[in-house]
């Protein structure tokens, strides 16, 4: 369904004319200016194939100065723009709603410096996450963020959404790991906040404004300084089955107690979701005889294989004795480790509509861990096919509800949606959760901000937006629309 069916175009924004295209061409040159219909079709469509804009122009700047020139001109002409990275976002934030010009950072993909003593990497915003991780791996380091979209998403997009990913429990959020940013404001000012210091309490930490929350509405991130940890050689992964959700919670406590400094992932999925995913992916069930309702994928990462393995073995023995776990397996080699992670990524990748017909409605919620699974049970009473999994260690639940298509006018859709919204958001707010744990608000959830932020807070956000982007040209209709 076109995203634009929910809002009307802000007529204060200019419509592109030949003079504008000529001007932009003068800034980015012919290789940075795309008007090809096929390329525009891809850039106008989000990863879920749910949101679709109608931009007639895509720009690929090659430097911060070019970004600055683009924004300065766009502000003066009141041309709306959408900053775009790898276009893997899941809330419709990276594509135009109407005819906004797409500014894709992909051509700004240079690694500027890496300091092996401090582990600080400085790079341009268009670097792809996996490329950065491979670059670091050659030097014995790793990126402190990992997620299923790593092959396409860009560090600028990761920063702008404050992506959480699979190992937040170990390495923390980007708020802590990003040491500095260069950001271009809507009037073309290049804001140099590219500090590469561990400690820097010099006035307001303005870069944090652009890490999460902003999602391209306050400025365009052009350079990033990030603190990277050592890549440790010993990785172990266990796939464990629990009979009830209370045991899963106790497992988290025990994992923290016994695995402490080596714990690097704590992911969960219920049997309904796992069965559904395996049906689609064709992978073998890691615990073929298990009849349990909950599964945990627990990873440790450390510096000493025999020590770490012994820790994990002891942990599993303890939780088996306590009856918290009733079945489980520990990967015996790297192939099995990859297989377990493959299944984890399939939790998401194998769900419709990706490569298959159909649609999926996604909810990415932070909920206090004790209450988190109650929502799944309540929703299952309303709907049959609720796929639930998440980063349990971070209190982050992912709900996926399949539908035949995104036809929001179909009566089926209305019946389906009426059973989910606003119930999911209201329930989450009532339990002091957040309606956006890690994916952001984008276009999909801009209307839902009030469930997790007070009116005073939203008002201050509006004032900040008006100050930094007085003409409102940056990613309109998103986040605090
Ligand atoms: P885009 O999708 O292009 O953009 C996302 C938002 O950031 C948009 O609002 C855009 O305007 C803005 N933006 C992009 N680049 C810039 C820039 N340089 N300056 C200013 N604004 C910019 N997210 C998680 O948190 N955890 C996960 O585990 C996770 N797993 C995923 C797995 C898959 C398979 C997929 C497809 C997505 C997943 N995501 C996950 C969603 C996640 O938000 C994105 O993958 C990623 O962070 C977005 O990066 P991107 O470069 O693709 O940004
Ligand atoms: C993940 O954890 C991603 O795999 C996507 O954040 C989750 O929306 C989803 O299903
Ligand atoms: Zn996630």
If you had to describe this structure to a student in words, what would you say it looks like?
The structure is a single chain. With 481 residues, the chain is an alpha+beta fold. The protein has four domains: 3-107 and 464-468, Uridine Diphospho-n-acetylenolpyruvylglucosamine Reductase, domain 2; 111-227, 2-Layer Sandwich (Uridine Diphospho-n-acetylenolpyruvylglucosamine Reductase, domain 3); 234-349, Alpha-Beta Plaits (2-Layer Sandwich); 359-439, Alpha-Beta Plaits (2-Layer Sandwich). Helices cover 35% and strands 19% of the residues. The chain is built from 16 helices and 16 strands. Strands 13-10-12-11-15-16-14 form a seven-stranded antiparallel sheet, with helices on both faces. Strands 5-6-9-7-8 form a five-stranded antiparallel sheet. Strands 1-2-4-3 form a four-stranded mixed sheet. β7 (178-184) and β8 form a beta hairpin. α1 (18-28) packs antiparallel against α3. The model has no long low-confidence stretch (mean pLDDT 93). The protein binds flavin-adenine dinucleotide (FAD), (2R)-2-hydroxypentanedioic acid and zinc ion. The site of (2R)-2-hydroxypentanedioic acid has 7 residues, from β14 and β16.
CA-based gyration radius: 23 Å
Describe the strand arrangement of the main beta sheet, using strand numbers.
13-10-12-11-15-16-14
Mean pLDDT: 93
Count of discrete structural domains: 4
CATH architecture of the largest domain: 2-Layer Sandwich
Which percent band covers the strand fraction? 15-25%
CATH fold call of the largest domain: Uridine Diphospho-n-acetylenolpyruvylglucosamine Reductase, domain 3
CATH class of the largest domain: Alpha Beta
List the ions, cofactors and other small molecules found in this model: flavin-adenine dinucleotide, (2R)-2-hydroxypentanedioic acid, zinc ion
Instruction: Write down how many β-strands occur, each being a DSSP E stretch of 2 or more residues.
Output: 16
What is the structural class?
alpha+beta
First and last CA, distance: 19 Å
- What share of residues is helical? 25-40%
What general form does the structure show?
globular
Weakly predicted, low-confidence segments: none
């Amino acid at each position: 369904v076109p995203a634009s069916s929910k809002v009307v175009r802000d007529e204060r924004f200019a419509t592109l004319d030949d003079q504008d295209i000529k001007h932009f061409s003068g800034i980015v040159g012919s290789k940075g200016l795309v008007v090809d219909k096929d390329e525009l079709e891809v850039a106008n469509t989000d990863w879920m194939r749910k949101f679709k804009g109608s931009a007639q122009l895509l720009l690929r700047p090659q430097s911060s100065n070019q970004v600055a020139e683009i924004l300065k001109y766009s502000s003066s002409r009141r041309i709306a723009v959408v900053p775009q990275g790898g276009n893997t976002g899941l809330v419709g934030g990276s594509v135009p709603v109407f005819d906004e010009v797409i500014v894709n950072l992909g051509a700004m993909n240079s690694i500027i410096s890496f300091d092996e003593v401090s582990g600080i990497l400085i790079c341009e915003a268009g670097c792809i996450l996996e490329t950065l991780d491979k670059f670091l791996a050659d030097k014995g380091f790793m990126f402190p963020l990992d997620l299923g979209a790593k092959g396409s998403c860009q560090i600028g997009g990761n920063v702008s959404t404050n992506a959480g990913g699979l190992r937040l429990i170990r390495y923390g959020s980007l708020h802590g790991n990003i040491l500095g940013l260069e950001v271009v404001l809507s009037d073309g000012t290049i804001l140099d906040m590219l500090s590469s210091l561990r400690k820097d309490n010099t006035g307001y930490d303005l870069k944090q404004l652009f890490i999460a929350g902003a999602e391209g509405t306050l400025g365009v991130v052009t350079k990033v300084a990030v603190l990277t940890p050592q890549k440790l050689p010993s990785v172990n992964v266990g796939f464990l089955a629990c009979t009830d959700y209370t045991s899963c919670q106790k497992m988290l406590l025990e994992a923290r107690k016994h695995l402490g400094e080596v714990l690097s992932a704590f992911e969960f999925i219920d049997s309904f979701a796992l069965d559904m995913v395996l049906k689609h992916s064709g992978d073998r069930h890691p615990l073929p005889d298990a009849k349990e309702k909950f599964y945990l994928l627990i990873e440790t990462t450390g510096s000493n294989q025999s020590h770490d393995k012994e820790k994990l073995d002891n942990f599993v023995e303890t939780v088996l004795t306590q009856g918290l776990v009733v079945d489980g397996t520990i990967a015996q080699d790297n192939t099995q480790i990859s297989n377990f992670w493959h299944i984890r990524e399939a939790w998401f990748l194998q769900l419709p509509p990706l490569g298959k017909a159909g649609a999926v409605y996604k909810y990415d919620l932070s909920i206090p861990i004790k209450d988190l699974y109650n929502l799944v049970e309540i929703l299952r009473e309303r709907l049959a096919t609720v796929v639930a999994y998440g980063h349990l260690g971070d209190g982050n639940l992912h709900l996926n509800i399949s539908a035949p298509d995104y036809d929001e006018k179909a009566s089926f859709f209305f019946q389906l949606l009426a059973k989910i919204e606003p119930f999911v958001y209201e329930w989450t707010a009532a339990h002091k959760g957040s309606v956006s744990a890690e994916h952001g608000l984008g276009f999909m959830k801009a209307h839902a901000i009030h469930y997790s932020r007070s009116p005073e807070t939203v008002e201050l956000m509006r004032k900040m937006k008006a100050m930094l982007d007085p003409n409102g040209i940056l990613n309109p209709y998103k986040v605090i629309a």
